[in-house]
Amino acid sequence: MSDTEIQTYQQALVKQLKKANILTTRLIEEAFLNVPRHLFLPDEPLEKVYSDVVIVVKRGEDGQWTSSSSQPAIMAIMLEQLNLKPGQRVLEIGAGTGFNAGLMASIVGPNGKVVTMDIQPDLVEYAREHLDAAGFDWVQTIVGDGGYGCPDEAPYDRIILTVASDIIAPAWKEQLGPDGILVLPFAVLDGNQKSVAFQKRGGELVSVDIKPCGFMPLQGAFAFAKPVQTPLGLDPRLCLFSEPGKELPAGADVIAAWLSQQFQDWASGVAVAVHELINDFFPWVSLQQLQGKPQAGLVGSLAAMGELADQNIYPSLFGFEGERKARYSAVMVESDGIAALISPPGQVAPLIDVMNPGDRYNTTFELYVRNFGPGTNAARRMLEYIQDWDRAGKPSSLQWQIRAIPAEIEYDLNDGEFLVNKPWTNLVISYQ
Asked: In total, how many domains does the chain have?
């Protein structure tokens, strides 16, 4: 493949990202044109390498992804959030293939500093080899637990995570210089990730931009606990996912029995798209519950996985295609019943391609609540949440402002603020 043909591929990808208004900064555009992604993914066909797709690099023994080359669109989004300048010092946690470090090195130049680290030694070796091949031998690669950062090279003007975390580790704040920017895929509530750009302002970190995202979790000492997966009935492909530390108000066998019995469907009168549910409604419900608003016994998701997803036996709201195919419904569980959010009765919930969400992600439909079991409290509360959110104007978590303040500081909430307690740091969230 000639240099001219490779440049044609690079230019087509950049044109696509610019057309989507994702790539808006000249320095980042030049980085995508100057850093050849195929050198970091030498075993992949060029058509795939220069497509806007995530590419799996490594899997664990269970077949789950442990590393990938991120989708170029989200790389561009996060680099825009990072707002890198020539000569700056940047730490990346999650080296992956080394391509993102190469893009950042192209921006800051050899007068700057790029440190990329990963907890998996073979990935660091892989990144080192391909950074050298691309001409970035001056980028520093380190094996280590990213939760501790890299104090030897601190302070940094910028820190970026390409793995998801549900906390802000003390080291990241400590190693960030004054007015520095931290960008991380942040699981603020219930595992729902957002790429949040924080600016360091005195003793606080204050969000300056929030975008949707999805990343593999941080490994090591600061890894967050996985959701609890409770099988329902004899088929292990049907299960309930819930937050760690929260008990089921009813036994798994009882819930399974409810799901096999008669149900009631209630129309909400509210039209939504899948992206609104994920980015707007679910985070809003989580905040309401934190502040003592009407409580359901447990909030989680009902999943029909694998081939069970195709049978449409159980209530569903949306699903995902591919090797992890599943259909999901958000649920509330009480001791006397379970309520599930569903798409309109008689309609098959859409299966979405995570690589190319397309229209199914944005198509609106009326939201329904399906009630199982003898009681209706969970269903009534679910319906109340939907209608309250609609009356409030469907506020979005992408409109949050997040202040991360030291946990030891007492803070009196103002009207419209919500407090989320985290280790070392408390989050004060408000809608802008």
From this structure: 2
What kind and span of H or E run contains 397? none
Residue 139 has phi, psi (to 5 degrees) of -70, 135
**Residue of 70, 301, 329, 343 marked catalytic:** 70
Measure the CA–CA gap between 164 and 381, rounded to whole angstroms. 31
Which tokens sit at 94? Answer: 């999650």
In a domain, 404, yes or no: no
d(CA 308, CA 327): 9
| 268/189 same-domain check | no
Does 187 reside within a domain? Answer: yes
Question: Which pTM was predicted?
Answer: 0.93
Do residues 38 and 185 both lie within one domain? Answer: yes
Query: Is the bond into 344 cis (omega within 30 degrees of 0)?
Result: no
Residue 361 CA to its chain's centroid (Å) = 16
Neighbouring C-beta atoms of residue 285, cutoff 10 Å:
23
pLDDT one-digit tens code per residue, 126-155: 999 999 999 999 999 999 999 999 999 999
Segments forming the whole domain that contains residue 54: 3-212
Residues 153 and 259 in one domain: no
Q: Compute CA distances 315 → 50, 261, 268, 276, 306, whole Å.
A: 38, 12, 16, 19, 15
Domain assignment of residue 222, yes or no: no
Q: Is 343 known to be catalytic?
A: no
pLDDT tens readout for residues 282-340:
999 989 888 765 555 678 999 999 889 888 888 888 888 877 789 999 999 999 999 99
